[in-house]
Amino acid sequence: MEMKKSILAIVTTSEQNIKGGGAPVFIVKDHDEIQHKIFLLENILDAMGHELDEQTFILVKH
Fold first, then answer.
1. For each successive 10 residues of the chain (62 residues), what is the average pLDDT?
2. Is residue 49 within 8 Å of 42, Cβ to Cβ?
3. Which domain of life is it from (predicted)?
4. CA-CA-CA-CA dihedral for 22, 23, 25, 30, to nearest 10
5. What DSSP state is assigned to residue 2?
6. What DSSP designation does 13 have?
7. Are strands 6-12 and 56-61 parallel, antiparallel or unpaired?
8. Quick check: helix, strand or coil at residue 45?
9. What's the structural domain count of the chain?
10. Which pTM value belongs to this model?
11. 25 class by beta-carbon count within 10 Å (0-12 exposed, 13-18 middle, 19+ buried)
């Protein structure tokens, strides 16, 4: 069974950006912490981080 593209996690500094859903959400304090979490999660989950806006990134399995 092959895994299709999916959002594995969301990393954001703005709790208001989250409207629910099925992916884990990491709320961090600033852009530097977003960059650190994205780097770690990309490696752990074998995923790619994509910036939606200055406050929100998603991790996607391709």
1. 82 86 92 96 96 95 88
2. yes
3. Bacteria
4. -130
5. P
6. S
7. antiparallel
8. helix
9. 1
10. 0.85
11. middle
